[in-house]
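Deviation from plan, reported transparently: guanosine-5'-triphosphate complex.
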Amino acid sequence: MRRYDSSSDEDDIRVRPGRRGSRPRTRTRPKHEDAAFGHVLTIDRGRLTCLVDGREVVAMKARELGRKGVVVGDQVALVGDLSGDEGTLARIVRVEPRASTLRRTADDDDPFERVIVANADQLAIVIALADPEPRPRLIDRCLVAAYDAGLEPLLVLTKADLAPAKPLLDVYAPLGVRHVVTAHGLDSGTGWDAEDGAVPDGEATGGEAAEEDGRVTEAGMRALLRGRVTVFVGHSGVGKTTLVNALVPGRARATGRVNAVTGRGRHTTTSALALPLAEEAERAGAPGDPEGAGWVIDTPGVRSFGLAHIDPSRVIHAFPDLEEGTADCPRACSHDEPDCALDAWVAEGHADPARLHSLRRLLASRERREGD
Ligand SMILES: Nc1nc2c(ncn2[C@@H]2O[C@H](COP(=O)(O)OP(=O)(O)OP(=O)(O)O)[C@@H](O)[C@H]2O)c(=O)[nH]1
Ligand SMILES: [Zn+2]
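Because the crystal trials were delayed, the predicted structure below was used instead.
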């Protein structure tokens, strides 16, 4: 698996320093050594539903966390009533360091970054091939967000029964982004089937799949998600719900608990929602490892990303063939200016011009335009 650097996420994992220095020792809080370990599944009005030992436990942030944010996907330590019984409320006393943070600014002019999902490693960008028409600029913006966060992108092209995938895939071929093609959810695929470990790659098998327009089977899709935390994003109507429901048939159960607390309807939450995928054996009725098959994180509120916080150098990090050529760039080069060293780098044959073109298109997509 390709991992991108996420070292600049450090500030997210630094818990606010305690006040040990300025207070008598006896007043320091106990360290909660007996705390239980949990995963944040969803958040609604300050109530966090966590998975603790297979139970859904509703919790709130302990005061000692201060302003430290807790987001879906976080691994947390909890104390208090962990029974998960109706009306009980546990306390989250610690947030474990994050392996990744997917963030957005609400708007491109909004200086505040918000972490929307923690610990994901894959971003599934769901795009309909027709109805609604694909919008490549939006895809580019999602890709930039993925590269910035260190998530590996996966293009999921739906509604292949309505339009061919090839024209769109040709645009993304230079990026080597992995992709799958679906029609009517996942069960109709008879063509290409990803096997264990044989993850399709843009450069390798992806091209073939594009030519044949082979559609991914359910088993193929599960192979791509197995053991990983995948965030699904997509515009309304692209078929994201159809897809997630096919993968997690019992998803309604996961949202039921929060609704019981707030009394709100099932689809009104704007929080992301983490859904554990079941192992094959488990789906057949046998007990399985709840973590083993991976997680799908549905994001009803995330259709695009404000990209004001994006650092071009983190995006270029996803282009190792070009990153090397930026050594001679002027300081703070936008990589789209006359003195940029990448033109010479490509002219000298060190990298494919189509790669540079794609990189520049992605960087340019950071500017919000009407329709984004
Ligand atoms: N022709 C065709 N229609 C599809 C396909 N997948 C989903 N649809 C239809 O597209 C419409 C939207 O699907 P949803 O799964 O609700 O899409 P969504 O992205 O979750 O949309 P929101 O719920 O609005 O966020 C529904 O009428 C689906 O039946 C497909 O592969 N082919
Ligand atoms: Zn440059």
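The longest strand covers residues 36-44. We consider this an acceptable substitute for the interim report.
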